[in-house]
Design a protein that fits this description.
heterodimer; A: MetI-like fold; B: 425 residues; Rossmann fold; OB fold (Dihydrolipoamide Acetyltransferase, E2P); 2 domains; six-stranded mixed beta sheet; six-stranded antiparallel beta sheet; 30% strand
Amino acid sequence: MMASAVAIAAPVPVVRRDRQRLIEKLAGCGFAFPAFLLLLLTNLVPLAVLLYLSFTNYELGALDTRFLGLDNFRKAVTDPVLRRSLANTFVYVAIVLPGAVGLGLLIAVLLHRRKRTRTFYEVVYFLPVTSTLIAMATVWQFILHPNLGPVNGMLRAMGFGEIAFLSEPAYVLPTLAAIGIWQLVGFNMVLFLAGLSAIPRDLYEAAEIDGCRSGIDRFLTITWPLLGPTTMFVIITTSITAFKVFDTVAVMTRGGPMGSSEVLLYAIYLEGYQYFHMGYAAALTLIFLAFVLLFSILQTFVLERRVHY
Amino acid sequence: MARVELKSISKSFGGVPVLSGIELDVADGEFLTLVGASGCGKSTLIRIIAGLEPQSSGSVLINGAPVDHLRPHERQVAMVFQSYALYPHMRVFANIGLPLMMSRLNLFERLPIIRMLSARRRRVMAEIESEVRAVTKQLQIDALLERRPSQLSGGQRQRVALGRAMVRHPAAFLMDEPLSNLDAKLRVHMRTELAELHDRLGTTFIYVTHDQVEAMTMSDRVAMMDNGTILQIGRPGDLYMRPANLKVAQFIGTPAINLLPAKVSSAGSVELFGAELPIRARRPAGSAMTLGIRPEAITLAPLGTSRPGMHLLPGRLRRSENLGPEHMLHIDLTSPASGTIICSVAGDHEPLTSDSRGLALLFMPSACHVFDVEGHRIDDVEAASAAAAPSSDPHARAFGATLCPLLPKAGEPCAPCGGPAARTS
């Protein structure tokens, strides 16, 4: 009796326990290694190269490269092209963000209660998301063409004058933004629909018994507050996507007329692949990344506090 | 305060009938429970009363006036949902106060930011706050006003849901399985609390549950539903003592009633396993019947015992479940009878069941419930023997027997029925 009690109470030898821990640690690292390698090769190494290039005057195809320190960034701060393209990008985001989020929400709320027609509308609104934007940009170019395009044809028929959507500096950014909205709405709608179906029906019924009479009451009391987390996600993804605008500009306007549609990514593209200033383009890319990061951090912190329940 | 009447309510979903011809009259201040297995239509019925679901035909009347054209909030009823349906983004205060804010503030006074401009809002909100505090104090959740539903326990959420219903002083409370999300212990506690709340408020309660214990313990009247119709409506005791239908007999009571196949003998009485019972069946000879015996109506005795006026079935113990104050015995009937019977026995049954030869199961024929082949109670059952007459003997009242069958030692109080010392046979 005594002997067996002692045997049970005897501790596991310390050496054996340490070995067990080491094996577990190694096994854990072994499992994580492939994923880490992939992350290293596809994200971290390119980022490091980018950082290095941004400190040099490397030009595509050049044989010797000089280390410049912070010169590229100093140049960027005073560069009028960069300033203009940043301003254009912000205007673009300022139009696309409320447009694509608001419309996406509106369409989702309208579609949510439909039964038979919901799938049809979902497909219709989602089509632009699945299409290639470069190809669609060409189509838009035709549609908005001052002489041949059907939009101006309609305006003419209604007695209005022609509008040069893509060659009038005042109209070009709003036009591009409208195309951006058209492309993003379907995606946002799907996200909002997912958020809407996660709201329990009970809540709407309770609200109805508690006196929510109209659709506006229901929306303000239940739908909008409970869509908070979805809305935050949609705002972040939309603003980052809008900030990355490139395809439509490259195909339709090439930054024109007179730089009035030159956006940040297009400016970087010009520096890097037209003027071959790879070092400077790398510095601009870092600035771009910093903005995207800032967006996500800002929105996460500001919105997170308000949508948490 | 309201009387709620349902006049031939029917409802079908896409051609499938779920309710047919429901007639119900709930008196002012009554606690009425709709009970039935899932899918019997009880939740649909309460949703029709609330106005959340339109009926296909028929009419709902509250205080004598039809409310079919009224929206849910205009019907002056409050509802407690199974899931509680608390607004997860609002604090307890706003959850409970919402019905008042909706009825007393206009749209502008409820809009974010813009509402700050209204001076009237501040005055109304102060009123609402005092009313919410009064209700939460009554429910003992006044310390939780600043919490969100996710920070509350199941029982606290339940109280918030009740508070939201109470704060409007509705004409009637509708409750759709409000206790089924609570753990067993809390459910028993809240059962008492709800019943006391009903006594205190004196408002009409219409309560839906699938739990017959809740129905039996809380209600003034119980309406047992099955397949879209009301099978029986009456006081809890009525449903238990005189079930009008085989399904009611099966549903009400734990453990469930024992059912034995019987038929009508050529003499017109009920025949059970070849033996005639002194019960007149008033159905054609040869027709099938079902005999129901409640577990507590059966008494056990050593094999070979016979008691005047009691019917005997032989059996052998299969399993015994100890519930503390009583034992649940599963007994296999032996030839000529067959099947399994459950009976409940208080106290020690060892001396009886250890007998390897078997047991005698005794019951009074008058304690049987007889149902015809459609499941309807045969109401005109008459016990032919004089033994059916009520007895003043406490053992007889407890067991329908003149002798306590467990035969405790002479001079000791009778454990099974709490009666005086049993006489030895």
